[in-house]
Amino acid sequence: MKLNIITYAYRGLVSTILFIIGKKSKIKDVFAWDDEDRSVNLDMSSLTSGSANSEDFVDANAVTQAKLDEHLQVEKQKFRYVATDIKGKKIKGTFDAYNIDQAKKFLTDEGLNIITINLRSKYDVDLTIGNPLSVAELAFALTQLSTYIKAGITLIDSVRILAKQAEKPQKKKIYQLVIYDLLSGDSFSNALAKQPKVFPKLLVNMVKSAELTGDLPNILDDMADYYESIDKSRKEVKSAMTYPTVVAVLAVVVVTFVFVWVVPQYEQMFKSFHQDLPSITKMTIAISNFINTNLMDILIVIILILALYLYLFKNVRSFRLIMQSFYLKLPVIKNLIMYKEISMFSRTFASLINHGVYISASMDVLLKVSENEVYRRIIKRTVDNLNAGGKISETFKDNPVIPVVAYEMIVTGESTGNLGEMLEKVSDYYDGLNKNAAAAIKSLIEPALIIFLAAIVGVIILSVILPMFSMYNSLSS
Known about the structure:
The chain is mainly α. It has 19 helices and three strands.
């Protein structure tokens, strides 16, 4: 991982603080957790425990992970083209290929009449925020692929159908790149792996397993169900948090408006009476003046803090570990995070085991796909424990971020030999708890925000009314 000056500054600051407070032993963690992920050796033969003979995979085993990574890192050239389709409609787009001749041939074979095609300059970049293919769209695409393959349509033609259905150029390009890589001789899993921002690592590894067992349609169906369930859970949690978020934003806007515009109006009126103002009124006016004077500075500082937080959270693993550990100690938030992580872990693990992936290889995949550093550490310890001949449940025992119910159900699954089935039940159970936790947070946030807004408005009203009563009494006298 290439680290820039902000990352080094953060690490130096944290190390200095740890040294001052006497936590010297923790300093090495700040640096150790910013290293690249350890290499995950998912040899082709170790991905599946199917009935195939080990001799069938001798050639596959000869292809090392290093060679595969080297193959995936071959950079394509980026082109921008103008073409017309079969209806004569002019189309502008971009495409990536190993050379311009291949790009022309591919686009021509896809039914386009090339007018111009040129290399893109280094300043010609795609401005894409997030994944252009949503989780719901990915699930539906996998369902379609499975249906087409079961109907006897080849994989390349199935992906071509998806490309034709795509209305947005960015989504069409995703499928076109998959087709191009398949035609170039890549396997389906390698073609997906070349677009890591679009296709999740779990999907890539599951497809790789399916290529060995020959069960691609069924695995695509299972992956579609998996991503549909994830999308459904996310939408339910998002829906539960939408109203409190809107109320919070409106509260901030209203309070800011009152301090910036309303309070100054009364301040001018109070000054004209030359009366000594109550303390609460003086405090309100002082806050109003501070906000008016430093509004732009406050906004800039808030934006910079948020930007720095997001950068560090995304790029510095030790910072992410510290923040995620902190969130897991918050009274209400910790349940929401814990239930979500346990549900995701169990569902993913169950999907891998139920498709014949070895437990050790499953843990390596889970290590790749997990985004929570606290649970990544648990998975790493589990891998080490498995390599030493231990059990999965031994790492989970008495762990504060692993619920007792989940631990006991995993122990039961190990002892009965039905680990996959038990993990599915764990996932369903904690998925329900996650939804309930989101609803509980919503029910807590709503009255808290209303009370906060009422208190702020009440203080402002009181600070305005008190001096007016005082002035009225003065005039009456």
